[in-house]
Input
Amino acid sequence: MLSSTALGQSAAYGQPYRPQVHFSPRMNWTNDPNGLVFFRGEYHLFFQYNPFGDQWGHMSWGHAVSRDRLHWRELPVAIPEHDGEMVFTGSVVVDKNTSGLCGTKPECLVAVYTGHRSTPELTRQTQNLAYSLDQGRTWTRYDANPVIDLDMADFRDPSVFWDEPLKGWVMAVALPKQHKVRFYSSRDLKHWTELSDFGPAGEVGGDWECPDLVHIPAENGTAGMWMLKVGINPGAPQGGSGEQYFLGDFDGKRFTPSREPGGHGWTNYGKDDYCAISFNHLPAGARPVLLGWMNNWQYASKLPTSPWRGQMSLARRLALVSDKDGIIAKQTPIVEGLREGKGDSFSGDSARTITLEAPFEIELNFDPREEKVFGVRLRTGEREWTEIGFDREKLQFFIDRTKSGTMVGQGFAYRTTAPLALDRRFDLRLIVDRSSIEAYAQGGTIAMTNLIFPTSGRSRVELFSKSGKPVPVKGTSWKLASIWK
Ligand code: FRU
Output
């Protein structure tokens, strides 16, 4: 017999569109992930959260913990809105008491977040601290907040990390209306010195938000590099919110983008991955890992889900690829831990049609020969499917969700595209959950995430090609275990 908590849990996470392999809060609204950090064996996920409803408002930091970044346990609100100040996006660091906020402890968690105050007369965004002496369970605001105040209405989303060569803290923070990321440094998290500005650069058609600066170490003969990613909303190439990245060098003061081809790209070419940030304080030798909000401000408030609204992407390991087409970031989702069994492998010219129930994963390696347009269709009804494919004529990888099910407002019915590199492999990895598809193509150099709201959780997996001839393919599919059971 199920215990009452197990019963409660499966009922609470059993709704038709409830993500089964992605984190979503049990109830209410969420947007950006905040304060991703690994500390004493636990991964922490804080997130923009409205404790009082399923629309944006009363922004506070929700909290969940995990030992594997897959199975999350939601904890009580970590940092609530207080005295008219909302708690906007920010980061958490493990501080070896440089701040003195840890008291007699050798180390503690310190959150650096944007405080947002708004009255009809005035809006102010400032950078603030809070600290926790009990592994993130309870938080105290620093009594001399704010630590940076530029007297500005738009100045937000501090991303802070420890820079070992510098022996100090570095902050990247957005000046959204100026399309700039400003860098600061500090010895104690309380006093900050301005270093430099990056931007405007690349796309500037909307607010710049949620910067993240991360070092991607050398691997497989590719030299290490820094990646600066920054959200833009609206004005992303697929409409609404999106995130561009720049590869380059950070010398402890200034970020200089590389001029190599591929040095400027998008962390995600779908519509639904925003404000991704990297984990702080990962064990030595670990690859950097990004995790984002699987949504788009164009229609985030209209998603047909209840009693929660909003979900997170999988965590993705970051690496670099350097080949004939230039340098490019590569992402690998962390999901293997949920695969049930060895998987079901198939190969041949016309792989048999299979039917799978979300959540599931499929890996496909196409050998397209002369075929120009080919891919896979996930059919969830007679007139309902999502198409994922490669188009060698238009030089695009694409996901077409215009017939994927229930539509949720402006900008949702869409075919998202990414530039295709003809020299790279035509491989595809799909993680299909009850209301999303995460696609990784060409060795993970293309990531494309889109929400879908099909009327059924069962998909018939159909291969297609423009000529109608079968395309040789090798593949494996796995049923994924729900993280909630
Ligand atoms: C991005 C964002 C951030 C801000 C937060 C408020 O989605 O607008 O810039 O800190 O959401 O919830």
Summary: The radius of gyration is 22 Å. Confidence is low (pLDDT under 50) at residues 1-7. The helical segments are 4-12. The pocket of beta-D-fructofuranose is lined by residues 31-32, 48, 59, 88-89, 114, 156-157, 209-210, 274-275 (CB under 6 Å).
